[in-house]
């Protein structure tokens, strides 16, 4: 490896299909913190020791909680610190995370606020209740150079576009590492919890406004973090089928069966529309033509295999009747034929 190697360039060179790379967390804890950040963000000198201890304690407990540092050009390094907690308390159909926004007087107060919230208490601090959409863009260049090379310019583009579109309820933040350096510029859209990569101005505008060519998501959609990685490719199929309306549906997904002999799965996706709740099942198999071997970061010593999955067959599944129906693709309202 030379100093000029960029993992994002290598991924783009092989035209990697980036679906299935979103990570799954029940809770995101976003903490406003001055720049610059160390490679391991919470080792940065600006992070108080009590916060560092709390992060280590939660990570040791293996809870599905992701701590991230965030920063905005608008606030830069003001004394007060925002603490944004996005939480998924639902075990049923999912439509997005609930947001809790707290204002700390300084970084030393943050650990107490987060600890109180995670314990089910009410943090003793200023609380805000304004609806907002928070876009996190990874710009963590000390962790991976691609996040600086591609993340920083995109953050500037994103900030300008949001201002141009006069989206007063949308905030864009610089974020510490949340995975997928080779897909830079990469972002998380909250409260949805959906991940994107290889972003540019055109695709980001479509994501922000949920308009334009839905096919752009075939190139920039990493997946929905509430779903297992293998199922994320199935959800993308439904996005392309239903269009931007899909983003208004509540969804749940699970792996029903696993077939190690062919790296296959039976996946189930349930979603709720205005006219009812539907469940589909699909056979997913390893896609040998799209599976790639790449260095996952600029500093990686060796290549890793990134397995991609193919939706082999999908069918409507009736839980009530315990029967399945074949779906004929390409028909707006699919004809359902019971499989005996």
What is shown here, in short?
This protein is an alpha+beta fold and about 350 residues long. The protein contains seven helices and 18 strands.
Task: Explain what this protein looks like in three dimensions.
This protein is of the alpha+beta class and 340 residues long. The protein contains 7 helices and 18 strands. It has a 10-stranded mixed beta sheet. A hairpin with a 4-residue loop joins strand 16 (309-318) and strand 17. Helix 2 runs parallel beside helix 3 (110-118) and helix 4 crosses helix 5 (201-209). The longest helix is centred in the middle third of the chain and has 20 residues, at 145-164. The N and C termini lie far apart (56 Å). Residues 325-340 have low confidence and may be disordered.
Task: Record keyword descriptors for this entry.
340 residues, single chain, alpha+beta, Glutaredoxin, 18 strands
Lateral strand order in the biggest sheet: 5-4-3-1-2-7-6-8-9-10
Total DSSP E strands:
18
CATH architecture of the largest domain: 3-Layer(aba) Sandwich
Average pLDDT value? 90
* Largest sheet geometry: 10 strands, mixed
Number of helices: 7
